[in-house]
Amino acid sequence: MSLPPVKVLFDENRIAARNRELASEISAAAPENLLVIAVLKGSFVFAADLIRALHASGQTPEMEFLHLSSYRDATVSSGQVDILRDVQSEVRGRDVLLVDDILESGRTLAFAKDLLAARGARRVLVCVLLEKPGKRAVQIDADFIGFECPDYFVVGYGMDVAHAFRQLPFIGVVEQLD
Ligand code: IMP
Ligand code: MG
What we know:
By secondary structure, the chain is of the alpha/beta class. It contains three helices and nine strands; from the N terminus they run βαβαβββαββββ.
């Protein structure tokens, strides 16, 4: 299958360097009994790199996954968040680091944050690879942000459009073919 070309926005080296910085920032927050929860699917590549950067900065996180869906196949948010797969571990009393790919309207992360707080997490910290400023529909801020993202639909490094491009090692923008 032939796919349209993707223009690089953040390359591999830049992402790796930023991940090391993020791990230091997270370590500076002195997390206790740290449970990293990756919001699937878009954050799986970022989360995999981030926990190894956390290891390099002396952390001993456990890893969980929360599969939420608010997007389906469209590039426009539906506004509704569904739990497709829940975390298996106890979160009560623990420091949780929620990891997601993009903070846009904020609905996905606000939902996840409320859910984990309601289950008794000691702290719910939020780390996003990208933030799209000026797009928030609900009030939520990330504690750790990889990069400010221009208002494009981005793909790669785990992120998709209609299931394509997750395998790209960089973050990019699909080029228009017209
Ligand atoms: P929010 O609930 O509007 O903040 O939705 C954020 C989620 O929408 C992200 O976790 C992504 O899964 C998806 N998303 C938003 N913008 C993009 C994009 O540019 N590319 C790929 N996925 C996106
Ligand atoms: Mg997502």
